[in-house]
């Protein structure tokens, strides 16, 4: 499609169009964009003038032609034509400076300026490097438009269809407003940046527009969707060059940094925009001329890998397939070794498999036993298979109501983890097994109650007298009524249990427990963790009713045949013992608060004294109760301090009723003279202990991450607050490394620091008992979060990790998903500022630590391939805490890379 010329008739509609060309005399053409101006420029140079010759350097690739320089020839520069040369060259340069971005020809006095000479030398070197390397063809950055931006798919024409559709819905009188340009091209979340692009494209047309028609929108679209790096670079330069003079000043750099920070919701960067602009100018303008040109910006972007190499400890997995691969390249599904795949699956899941198989087998055996037993009874002749099915289901219910208690006996499971039983039983899946048994209970209730109410009761009531005599003694010799069966002890207890279990199971489902169901007040109290927690305690009543129901059940008279109490007695005793132990231990483990901090991202950090005799492993968690909030509720939180620390710390995300109230109690308790968004302190900086509520601690309890020492290398992945289980592991690795260094060099005094809090510092105490050498040699920690403030939670740990990273022990990778991915024009300048600041000051501009923050999400395939290449023949423990969606991908990659490489990945997900 051809776009209308700049000088086309616009009398059919009204808009603001002010020429900003000054005294430029530019010929119009029928084409738009960069390519449309080239013929006019060549025609201008082709004017016959034997005394005025110019050398034009063009750079051509497949989809663009770029004018690199326009200089007088040697003949034109001779004394014979020097006057004309000096007058004509500036004219041509001024004429096309708005497009070519060529600075005016320097005067002889300027040519002798050392600063200008130094810049010209750098410019020539940059051109040589560019032509030598061809880096511009490999660079994928500076994307203004992508498939994800427009939410479409396919080629540019397919994306344009989506944009055109939006134009029709947003345009008024056939014209699209400047303010709606961002919505139209898919930049709804960064309208200010889109407006900057709009203004830059208007300046290229030498116009100041407020509204554009469809053809002009298409002209703009062709320019911003151009796949040529040079074309995108020119638009990006034009965005910064707001006065269109071909030069970028410090103020203009500040404006673009502010625009980019706003588009990526990085308010912290906006506060330091002057410092970062100075950093750019210092790097690109060493001659201190006060401006930078297009070639300098290009050189910075093309050399970004040089600045960023320091932050990429994992090498690009080139040659990985040949170094650490047992088969051909890639992962062709049709060519996989099915035998090896099956063997690996069995190796990873055999513990789960035999437990589930045993459970199903026992249930089937109990069902069959009761089914056959009642099939031979006289009652079968009256009520038929309805009775046998109901009684078989009842026997499985007894087993499941006993088993469902065991996976939540956390003290018992924590102890069993440390025994040989951990080699055969998957204790990490205790919650999943608890849920699976609950499903079995639902199925058993449906079969048992359904067959009684809808089948064998009606058959009993309709039984002829001769058949009823077979069971008459069980019903007092009188045929019962349906209402009498329901209102008897058996019927009332059974109905009550069904109702209570229905309530408990419903409120325990994910949609109710996570408050995904929106109910009107006051029914909204039926959603959330509190509703789930309290409703689950209805099972105390259910178990009492179950014992009564089992004692008075129909058709059984001998006490030893009433087996309900036999099934329940051991699990109930274990569970009741755990609750009693929990009560006494929580009183003994009353913790004294040392520090309270409200951190960015609505996170409450609690640092408390370690109770006497309290021992734990990294990766474990504790339950906390605050009587000032609720005298009954206990909530689990991962321990973020290391076992060697002399304090206990947790980080709590305030996302529910209980956590919100806990935060309010701690931040508003007491009367003090200062409140800086943290706990209350007196004038001397001491915490007013009388003002802080009491905390009770129960635990520690085992989790999957506590077994990290069983692996050669760790891959720790945390999403948001899911990083907390792994901070303790990082601290432990740091402490162990420090102790090892102290043993190797007793004269070295290694200092330890706590996390990001600046109010206090805590030392670490080491256990006097000797520990066996840890198998773990290195760790890779990936922290993915949407909120930049989250990095404030563990700044101290990250700085220590960055220092240790130089020794190849721990690699920490921070990923901020709220920032546009690397390569997007909205984050390009921020990426360069980040690289320059880290190279100069050693500090990341986002996290404020020595660990560089990556933008967008990790490429997990590259992560796994890099680790497999770096650690061949090793056993990798993959530990994940976060949303289930990513867990599926990490588990899949663990399986695939274990099959295709000599590295073994074992995946574990944290469950609470």
UniProtKB/TrEMBL annotation:
For bias kind Basic and acidic residues, which ranges apply? 8-17
Enumerate the GO terms in the molecular function aspect: calcium ion binding; NAD(P)H oxidase H2O2-forming activity; peroxidase activity
Chain intervals for the UniProt region annotation (Disordered)? 1-26
For this UniProt entry, which segments traverse the membrane? 353-372, 436-454, 485-508, 529-552, 564-581, 713-730
Keyword annotations: Calcium, FAD, Flavoprotein, Membrane, Metal-binding, NADP, Oxidoreductase, Peroxidase, Transmembrane, Transmembrane helix
Taxonomically, the superkingdom here is Eukaryota
The record ties this protein, via SUPFAM superfamilies, to: EF-hand, Ferredoxin reductase-like, C-terminal NADP-linked domain, Riboflavin synthase domain-like
CDD domains xrefs: NOX_Duox_like_FAD_NADP (cd06186)
Write down what this protein is called. Respiratory burst oxidase-like protein E
Q: Please name the source species.
A: Acorus calamus (Sweet flag)
């Amino acid at each position: 499609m051809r776009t209308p010329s700049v000088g086309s008739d616009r009398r059919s509609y009204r808009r603001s169009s002010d020429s900003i060309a000054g005294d430029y005399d530019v010929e119009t053409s029928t084409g738009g964009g960069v390519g449309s101006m080239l013929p006019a420029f060549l025609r201008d140079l082709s004017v016959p003038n034997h005394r005025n010759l110019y050398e034009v350097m063009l750079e051509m690739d497949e989809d663009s032609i770029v004018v690199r320089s326009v200089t007088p020839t040697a003949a034109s520069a001779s004394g014979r034509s020097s006057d004309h040369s000096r007058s004509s060259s500036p004219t041509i340069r001024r004429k096309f400076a708005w497009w070519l971005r060529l600075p005016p020809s320097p005067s002889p006095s300027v040519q002798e300026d050392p600063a200008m000479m130094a810049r010209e030398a750098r410019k020539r070197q940059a051109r040589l490097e560019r032509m030598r390397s061809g880096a511009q063809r490999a660079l994928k950055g500076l994307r203004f438009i992508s498939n994800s931006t427009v939410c479409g798919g396919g080629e540019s024409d397919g994306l344009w269809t989506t944009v055109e559709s939006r134009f029709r819905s947003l345009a008024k009188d056939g014209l699209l407003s400047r303010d709606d340009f961002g919505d139209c091209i898919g930049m709804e979340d960064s309208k200010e940046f889109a407006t900057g692009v709009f203004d830059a494209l208007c300046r290229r047309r030498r116009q100041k527009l407020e509204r554009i028609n469809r053809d002009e929108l298409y002209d703009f679209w062709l320019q911003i969707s151009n796949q040529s790096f040079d074309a995108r670079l020119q638009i990006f330069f034009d965005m910064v060059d707001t006065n269109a003079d071909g030069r970028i000043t410090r103020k203009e750099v500040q404006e673009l940094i502010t625009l980019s920070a706003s588009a990526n919701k990085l308010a912290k960067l906006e506060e330091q925009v002057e410092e970062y602009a100075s950093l750019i100018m210092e790097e690109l303008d060493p001659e201190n001329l006060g401006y930078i040109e297009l070639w300098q910006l290009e050189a910075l972007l093309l050399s970004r890998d040089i600045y960023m190499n320091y932050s990429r400890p994992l090498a690009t997995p080139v040659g990985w397939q040949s170094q650490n691969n047992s088969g051909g390249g890639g992962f062709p599904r049709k060519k996989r070794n099915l035998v090896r795949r099956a063997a690996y699956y069995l190796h990873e899941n055999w513990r789960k498999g035999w437990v589930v198989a045993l459970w199903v087998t026992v249930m089937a055996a109990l069902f069959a036993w009761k089914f056959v037993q009642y099939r031979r009874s006289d009652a079968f002749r009256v009520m038929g298979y309805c009775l046998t099915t109901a009684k078989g289901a009842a026997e499985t219910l007894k087993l499941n109501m006993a088993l469902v208690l065991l996976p939540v006996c956390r003290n018992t499971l924590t102890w069993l983890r440390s025994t040989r039983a951990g080699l055969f039983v998957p204790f990490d899946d205790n919650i999943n097994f608890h849920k699976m048994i609950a499903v079995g209970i639902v199925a058993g209730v449906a079969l048992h109650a359904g067959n009684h109410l809808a089948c064998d009761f009606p058959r009993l009531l309709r039984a002829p007298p001769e058949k009823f005599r077979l069971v008459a003694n069980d019903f007092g010799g009188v045929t019962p009524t349906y209402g009498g069966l329901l209102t008897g002890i058996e019927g009332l207890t059974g109905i009550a249990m069904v109702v209570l279990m229905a309530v408990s199971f419903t409120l325990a489902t994910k949609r109710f427990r996570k408050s995904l169901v929106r109910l009107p007040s006051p029914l909204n109290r039926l959603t959330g963790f509190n509703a789930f927690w309290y409703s689950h305690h209805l099972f105390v009543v259910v178990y009492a009713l179950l014992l009564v129901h089992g004692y008075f059940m129909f058709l059984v008279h001998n006490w030893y045949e009433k087996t309900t109490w036999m099934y329940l007695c051991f699990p109930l005793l274990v569970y009741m013992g755990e609750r009693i132990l929990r009560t006494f231990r929580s009183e003994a483990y009353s913790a004294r608060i040392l520090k309270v901090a409200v951190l960015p991202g609505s996170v409450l950090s609690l640092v408390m004294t370690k109770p006497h005799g309290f021992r734990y492993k990294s990766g474990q968690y504790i339950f906390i109760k605050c009587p000032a909030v609720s005298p009954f509720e206990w909530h689990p939180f991962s321990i973020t301090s290391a076992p060697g620390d002399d304090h206990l710390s947790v980080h709590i995300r305030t996302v529910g009723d209980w956590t919100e109230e806990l935060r309010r109690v701690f931040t508003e308790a007491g009367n003090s003279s200062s409140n800086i968004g943290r706990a209350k302190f007196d004038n001397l900086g001491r915490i007013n202990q009388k003002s802080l509520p009491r905390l009770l601690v129960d635990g520690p309890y085992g989790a999957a991450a506590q077994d990290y020492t069983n692996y050669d290398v760790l891959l720790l992945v945390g999403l948001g607050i899911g990083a907390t289980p792994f901070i303790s592991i990082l601290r432990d690795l740091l402490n162990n490394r420090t102790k090892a260094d102290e043993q190797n060099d007793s004269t070295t005094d290694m200092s330890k620091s706590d996390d990001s809090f600046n109010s206090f510092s805590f030392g670490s105490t080491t256990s006097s008992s000797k520990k066996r050498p840890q198998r773990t040699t290195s760790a890779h920690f990936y922290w993915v979060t949407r909120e930049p403030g989250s990095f404030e939670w563990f700044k101290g740990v990250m700085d220590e990790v960055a220092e240790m990273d130089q020794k190849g022990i721990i690699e920490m990778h921070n990923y901020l998903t709220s920032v546009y991915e690397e390569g997007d024009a909205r984050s390009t300048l921020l990426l360069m500022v980040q690289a320059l600041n880290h190279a100069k000051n050693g500090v990341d501009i986002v996290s404020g630590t020595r660990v560089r923050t990556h933008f967008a999400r990790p490429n997990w395939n590259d992560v796994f391939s890099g680790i497999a290449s770096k650690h061949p023949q090793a056993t990798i423990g993959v530990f994940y805490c976060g949303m289930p969606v990513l867990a599926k991908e990490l588990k899949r990659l663990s399986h695939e890379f274990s099959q295709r490489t000599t590295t073994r990945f074992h995946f574990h997900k944290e469950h609470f």
